[in-house]
C-alpha cells in the first residue's frame, strides 16, 4: 500500500529535476576582458608617468568609457547583436570584465562595438545600471552621456592644477563622437556547445592623444563640450585592439 | 467629577480635530481619477510617452512630496517649489532670474511648468531632451540646488518616510535616480493648462469681450506664427532681438549646438498664464507685457541676427497693444492655478 503513495512523490521529484535541467541550459558565455594600457605599459592610475607623442609627461587619475551595441560575426558572415551597454572604469576591476550570455556556439571571426552610447540611449530619459546618471558620465546642461572620460595631470598643462580633463561625448551632428569599432580575430573565436569564450581587448589610453592628431597638452588640456571633441573622438576610434 | 468633564472635553476636541483632518485628507488625497491620462482633445499628441511611467496615486503623491521637499538641495533650503510657485503657473513670481542656495542668483528667468509633455526639449536653450531628466539640471546646478544625485538618494534612503513611499509607488523600497525622476515626472507631467477663458471660448463654453476678440484677431495676425495655438509655442528657438547682456554673458542656444546661427536664440515660450509669469524674456528684463510689445514694435538691422520675421518690427498701435494684452489675459487658467493636486502638501490648505 505504501508504494502507491511514494511513487507519485518520486515521480514529482524526477519531473522537477528534469524540468530544472531543461530550464537552466548550459548557456555559453563570452567573457570580454578589457585591459587598459598606455602605449606598451599597463595603465596604473596616479603612480606611473607616461609620455605623449610630443614627449610631454602626464599621469592618469581617471579612465572610464562606455561600450555598447556589441555584435559578433561568425564564420558564415552572420551577425549576432547584443543590446546592453557597459561602463568600463579603470577604478573598478569588476567593470573591466563583461559577460555576454546566450551566444550560439560556433566560430566567430570578428567583434564590433560602439564606443559610447547610441542616439536612442541618449534620448531615453531616466535610466538605470550603466546608464544611471549617478555614474558621473552624464552631461546635465546638454543632455547626453560622456562616452570617454580621461583625467590626469601634466606639468605642461595650463589648466588650474596642471589638470588634464577630457570628457568626450555628444551624439548629434556635427559633433557626433560615437565611434564604431570592428576588430578581427586572427584565430577564430570558438564557442563550444557547453563551453565558454574568452577574449581580451586592449584599450590604449595614449591613443586619445596620438593619431591622427597628436595633442600638445600645453595647448589643449581640457575638452568638456563640443569644442575639440571630434579631434579626440577621431583619435580614440582606434584605441582598441585584440590581445592575442 | 471635574476629571469626567475634562475627559469629555478632550474627547470632543479630539473628534473636532479628527473631522478637520478628514476634511484635509480629502483635499490632499490623490485618487485614481486625479492621475487619469485624459488630455485635451484639441491638443496634439503628447511628446512624452507615459508608457513606461504610468501615473498612479502613489507615484504622483511621491512626486509631489519630492517637488516640495528642500531635501533635494545641498543644505535643505531650496525645493523645486521654491522657484516654481503654483500661483505663478510654477514660474517664480516677480523674480527676474532664479534664486538658489546661499542667496545665489542664476542668469535665467524661471519658466512656468505647464503642458510639459508637449515640449520637445527643455530649458531656455533646449539643452535637455527628455522631461524625465530635466530635474537633474536644477538639482545639480551650483547656483540652484547644488546637490549631487547620489547624495539625494542617500538622504532619501535614510529618511523615515521616503522608503515606504517608494515602496507604495514602485513595489519595493529601493530608491534609484530613475524612480526619483519618474515620480517627479508623474507630478509635473500632469500639470496641464487647458481651461482658460480662451479655451472655454474655443469650446463655445464662454464668450470673450469685443476688446479681447480684437486682441485675438491681432494676435493671430501678428504673433501666432511663433506662438502657435493651442500651445502658444511652435517649439522653436529664435533670436527675438534681445540684446546680449555683458554681465550675464548668456549667448543662448549656441552653447548647446555650437552653431553660430544659434547665437542669442532662445526657446519660444508658451504664452499660457502669461499674466502670472512676469517678468518676461529669458532673463526677465521686461517687467510687464506692455514693455514686451514695445520691444517687438521696434525695427532691427539684419546684422543684428534677429529673426527675419521681426526685422521690420511688428506694426501695432497703442490701442492694438492694449487689446492684445487683454486677449493674453484670457490665457490665465484659474482651474490650473488653483488645482489642489499641485498644492504644496506641507502648507496649510489655502
N-to-C SSE series of chain A? HEEEEEEEEHEEEEEEHE
- Quantity of strands of chain B, as a count: 2
| CATH class annotation of the largest domain in chain B | Mainly Alpha
How would a crystallographer describe the biggest sheet of chain A?
Answer: 10 strands, mixed
Number of strands of chain A: 15
Number of domains of chain B: 3
The helix content of chain A, as a percent range, equals: 10-25%
Order of strands in the sheet with most strands of chain B: 1-2
Question: Oligomeric status of the shown chains?
Answer: heterodimer
Summed over residues and divided by their number, the pLDDT of chain B gives a mean of: 94
Helix-strand pattern of chain B: HHHHHHHHHEHEHHH
Approximately what portion of the residues of chain B adopt beta-strand conformation?
Answer: under 5%
Explain this structure to me?
The complex is a heterodimer of chains A (244) and B (350). Chain A has one domain (26-243). Chain A is built from 3 helices and 15 strands. Chain A has helices spanning 2-23, 119-122, 229-236, and strands at residues 29-38, 41-42, 50-51, 57-74, 79-81, 85-89, 97-101, 106-115, 138-139, 144-153, 163-169, 179-191, 196-204, 222-223, 240-243. By secondary structure, chain A is mostly beta strands. The N and C termini of chain A lie far apart (66 Å). Chain B has helices at 2-28, 57-67, 80-83, 136-140, 149-158, 162-170, 177-189, 197-202, 210-222, 254-257, 289-297, 318-328, 334-337, and strands spanning 237-238, 266-267. The A-B interface holds A 122-128, 132-134, 138, 140-144, 172, 174-175, 225-227 and B 123, 127-133, 136-137, 140-141, 149-150, 153, 176-178, 181-182, 185, 255-258.
Amino acid at each position: 500500500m505504501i508504494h502507491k503513495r511514494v511513487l507519485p512523490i518520486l515521480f514529482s521529484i524526477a519531473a522537477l529535476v528534469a524540468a530544472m535541467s531543461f530550464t537552466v541550459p548550459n548557456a555559453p558565455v563570452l567573457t570580454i576582458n578589457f585591459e587598459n594600457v598606455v602605449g606598451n605599459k599597463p595603465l596604473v592610475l596616479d603612480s606611473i608617468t607616461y609620455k605623449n607623442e610630443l614627449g610631454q609627461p602626464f599621469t592618469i587619475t581617471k579612465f572610464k568609457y562606455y561600450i555598447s551595441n556589441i555584435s559578433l560575426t561568425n564564420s558564415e558572415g552572420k551577425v549576432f547583436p547584443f543590446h546592453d551597454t557597459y561602463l568600463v572604469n579603470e577604478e573598478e576591476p569588476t567593470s573591466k570584465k563583461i559577460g555576454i550570455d546566450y551566444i550560439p556556439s560556433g566560430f566567430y571571426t570578428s567583434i564590433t562595438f560602439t564606443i559610447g552610447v547610441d542616439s536612442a540611449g541618449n534620448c531615453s530619459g531616466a535610466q538605470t545600471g550603466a546608464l544611471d546618471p549617478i555614474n558621473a558620465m552624464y552631461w546635465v546642461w546638454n543632455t547626453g552621456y560622456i562616452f570617454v572620460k580621461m583625467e590626469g595631470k601634466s606639468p605642461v598643462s595650463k589648466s588650474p592644477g596642471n589638470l588634464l580633463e577630457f570628457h568626450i561625448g555628444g551624439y548629434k551632428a556635427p559633433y557626433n563622437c560615437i565611434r564604431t569599432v570592428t576588430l578581427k580575430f586572427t584565430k577564430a573565436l570558438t564557442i563550444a556547445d557547453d563551453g565558454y569564450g574568452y577574449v581580451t581587448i586592449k584599450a590604449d589610453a595614449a591613443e586619445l592623444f596620438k593619431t591622427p592628431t597628436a595633442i600638445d597638452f600645453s595647448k589643449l588640456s581640457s575638452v568638456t563640450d563640443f569644442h575639440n571633441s571630434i579631434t579626440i573622438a577621431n583619435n580614440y576610434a582606434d584605441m582598441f585592439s585584440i590581445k592575442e | 467629577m471635574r476629571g469626567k468633564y475634562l475627559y469629555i472635553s478632550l474627547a470632543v476636541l479630539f473628534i473636532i480635530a479628527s473631522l478637520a483632518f478628514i476634511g484635509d485628507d480629502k483635499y490632499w488625497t490623490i485618487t485614481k481619477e486625479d492621475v487619469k491620462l485624459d488630455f485635451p482633445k484639441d491638443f496634439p499628441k503628447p511628446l512624452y510617452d507615459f508608457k513606461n511611467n504610468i501615473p498612479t496615486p502613489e507615484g504622483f503623491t511621491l512626486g509631489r512630496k519630492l517637488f516640495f521637499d528642500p531635501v533635494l538641495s545641498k543644505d535643505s533650503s531650496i525645493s523645486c517649489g521654491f522657484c516654481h510657485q503654483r500661483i505663478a503657473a510654477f514660474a517664480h513670481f516677480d523674480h527676474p532670474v532664479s534664486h538658489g542656495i546661499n542667496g545665489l542668483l542664476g542668469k535665467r528667468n524661471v519658466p512656468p511648468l505647464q503642458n510639459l509633455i508637449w515640449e520637445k526639449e527643455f530649458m531656455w536653450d533646449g539643452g535637455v531632451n527628455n522631461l524625465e531628466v530635466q530635474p537633474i539640471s536644477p538639482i545639480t546646478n551650483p547656483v540652484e540646488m547644488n546637490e549631487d544625485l547620489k547624495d539625494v538618494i542617500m538622504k532619501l534612503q535614510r529618511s523615515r518616510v521616503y522608503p515606504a513611499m517608494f515602496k507604495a509607488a514602485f513595489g519595493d523600497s529601493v530608491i534609484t535616480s530613475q524612480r526619483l525622476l519618474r515620480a517627479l515626472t508623474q507630478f509635473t507631467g500632469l500639470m496641464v493648462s487647458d481651461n482658460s477663458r480662451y479655451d472655454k471660448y474655443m469650446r463655445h463654453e464662454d464668450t470673450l469681450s469685443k476688446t479681447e476678440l480684437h486682441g485675438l484677431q491681432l494676435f493671430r495676425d501678428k504673433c501666432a506664427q511663433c506662438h502657435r495655438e493651442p500651445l502658444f509655442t511652435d517649439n522653436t528657438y529664435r533670436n527675438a532681438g534681445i540684446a546680449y547682456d555683458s554681465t550675464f554673458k548668456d549667448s543662448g542656444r549656441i552653447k548647446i549646438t555650437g552653431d553660430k546661427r544659434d547665437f542669442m536664440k532662445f526657446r519660444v515660450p508658451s504664452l499660457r498664464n502669461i499674466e502670472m509669469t512676469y517678468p518676461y524674456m529669458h532673463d526677465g528684463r521686461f517687467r510687464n507685457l506692455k514693455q514686451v510689445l514695445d520691444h517687438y514694435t521696434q525695427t532691427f538691422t539684419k546684422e543684428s541676427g534677429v529673426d527675419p520675421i521681426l526685422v521690420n518690427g511688428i506694426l501695432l498701435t497703442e490701442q492694438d497693444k492694449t487689446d492684445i494684452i487683454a486677449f493674453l489675459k484670457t490665457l490665465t487658467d484659474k482651474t490650473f492655478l488653483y488645482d489642489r493636486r499641485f498644492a504644496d502638501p506641507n502648507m496649510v490648505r489655502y
